Give the backbone structure.
Amino acid sequence: MNTCSTLLFDLDGTLLDSREGVIDAVYYTIEEHCPGLFTRGEITDRFGEALEEFLRAVEAKINEQQVQKPELPDQFKVSHWDRTAYCKDYFTYMKRHNQQVQLFPFVREGMEALKKRGFQLAVVTNKQRELALQNLEIAAILHLMDTVVTLDDVVLGKPSPEPIQKAMAILGTVPEATLMIGDSRYDLLSARAAGVRSVLLEWYGADQRIQEEPHYRFQTFQMLVDELLLASVQGKGE
């Protein structure tokens, strides 16, 4: 870790204790539009996925069910599916609940310590820009970020390497000096594709659904920060 000078953080489930809120937003909204299409467990398994990828999964599942069960009600048919209406309802739900999210313990203090030590800090998220910036402002950590890359800033979200590559380009850094910190398989896959090392923050305990292996694992933010600060001192020979 002592060669890392740039830290890229996922937002939901990594800095913010917002996992259940995001899952609720996706599940309740899809239930309104296509009742029974996904279980809540299936939505949980997809946590961290870019919205466009989820919408494609919805349409693929509707197509599959339409072929297998042509007698299904109209709401399960592609001709009835309205992704624009779904997105509108999803954003409405998220905006209504977006101000209720909170930082995980020690995140603000840890980010301040990392910033003081000279690390470049950025958020790389599959969340939309308006929602992400609102979260960061409410949490009072937006001013600590050197840049914020959201789903609105790229063509493809994570697990594509594009969001990480965009952040590195903005910050003028290279993969060898960059660390991606997240809580989902999408963060790990994006990091691998971009050629950067990855950290899995296991706030919710070890997740057996994540098959990808990160370079490092930590159970709390303080453990991560302590290790980064120690590595920074060792790297500078202090």
